[in-house]
Amino acid sequence: MLGEIVSPMPPGKEEREPAAAGQQPLVFAAWNTNAAIRRESSSGGIFTLLAEQTIAKGGVVFGAAFDEQLNLRHIAVETAECLAALRSSKYLPSKTGSTFAQTKQLLAAGRDVLYTGTPCQIAGLKSFLGPGFATLLTCDVVCHGVSSERMFRKYIAALEKQHGAKATALCFRDKSSGWKNYSVRINFENGSTYRAPATEDPFMLAYLRNLCLRSGCYHCPFAAIPRQGDITLGDYWGLDLAHPELDDNRGTSLVLANTEKGKESLAALAGAIELHPSSLTQAARCNPSLTRPVGPSLQREEFMNDLDALPFAELRIKYLMPARPPSLLRRVYWRVKRLLPPGIKDYFER
Ligand SMILES: Cc1cc2nc3c(=O)[nH]c(=O)nc-3n(C[C@H](O)[C@H](O)[C@H](O)COP(=O)(O)OP(=O)(O)OC[C@H]3O[C@@H](n4cnc5c(N)ncnc54)[C@H](O)[C@@H]3O)c2cc1C
Predict the structure, then answer these.
(1) Is this structure's pTM higher than 0.70?
(2) Most buried of 80, 86, 251, 331, CB within 10 angstroms?
(3) b/e 112-131 (16+ beta carbons within 10 angstroms → b)
């Protein structure tokens, strides 16, 4: 199946044309056949399969994990048991610390390394290392952007006050109600739990409404084809339109094999992965971050100023209430969205 060439994307309005011939990725809808791992992962659990492959070769996996204070940083993992900390998307900047230098040392010693991260992190790693590391596999995620740390801290502080205890664990992508209806789940030191659908949680509303992304994310040069990693992973949003027969709402990954190394790694997962050919055109239809950065909300500047000035409860009332039932205009927009050029879409997505 992997050898099959997926039709190259026509250079449409939404996608940028790949820089060079021969860099057309193979595109798949995919998931891990291990149902428990798939449930714990944001989309189809493909990250864990790639990580297990590296660990089985005696290699080291780098990815983003929270510490006990909910600080996010990249760590090195060498056992399958420790991969749980890396699983699931965290919508914050992860500090890479000394992991680029560690990667270089491991590669120089002949070890296999899987380095995973946002496209900008993979671009940074490649620029730090230079070419020629045969045992390095890189994997970037399709990235909507990362939130301002200030917004996250204010949100956590408000919830800690409400629950009367320190937050100890957080999952942005709890799938108990399904992949598409994911919730945020936070555990507190006193045993209490917070859970809210992403459509009602104030942090996710600020993030998805593009109110609080780091300023550089709105101009990200790496949200583009060709992608930065040997493999790119994302959520296959729009699966119900592109491949309705595959949609079980348990999480399906969008997988791009961008290089020969990426294609070989995917091929070696046969037996543990469900892999279905797709195309860039289909994949990009409902996933704009695959090919271009998101635009800032028109309210972003005001929101970021108010972030310091207003108590969280007021900030919430002013900007972060769940959406009202959609207007007739918006319902019409959703129906015809796929046919519209990006400029008009940007207006409605702000
Ligand atoms: C900030 C962010 C924004 C995203 N935006 C989109 C989007 O707009 N569209 C889309 O289709 N997919 C997006 N994704 C990707 C998607 O949510 C999944 O990460 C991807 O589908 C892989 O899922 P999985 O089930 O294979 O594995 P999972 O176990 O869910 O993947 C975990 C992987 O993500 C990495 N990771 C998690 N958080 C971070 C972080 N903050 N910084 C760097 N690496 C991190 C881990 O290191 C690990 O490699 C985003 C991910 C992140 C982290």
Answers:
(1) yes
(2) 251
(3) bbbbbbbbbbbbbbbeebee
Residues whose beta carbon lies within 6 Å of some atom of ligand 1: 41-48, 63-64, 72, 86-92, 94, 116-118, 121, 141-144, 146, 233-235, 237, 253-254, 287, 289
Domain with 105, as residue range(s), is 26-140+222-290
pLDDT tens-digit profile of 21-34?
Answer: 456 899 999 999 99
Domain count along the chain:
1
How many other CB atoms sit within 10 Å of the CB of residue 225? Answer: 21
Give the distance (Å) from ligand 1 centre to CA of residue 237.
13
pLDDT of residue 322: 87
Which residues of the chain, if any, have pLDDT below 70? 1-23, 325-326, 345-350
Does some domain include residue 71? Answer: yes
Residue 57 lies in a domain: yes
Cα–chain center distance at 250: 16
For atom 29 of ligand 1, which residue has the closest CA?
87
161 domain residue, yes or no: no
> Best substitution site from 141, 222, 254 to test ligand 1's pocket, by max atoms within 8 Å of Cβ?
141
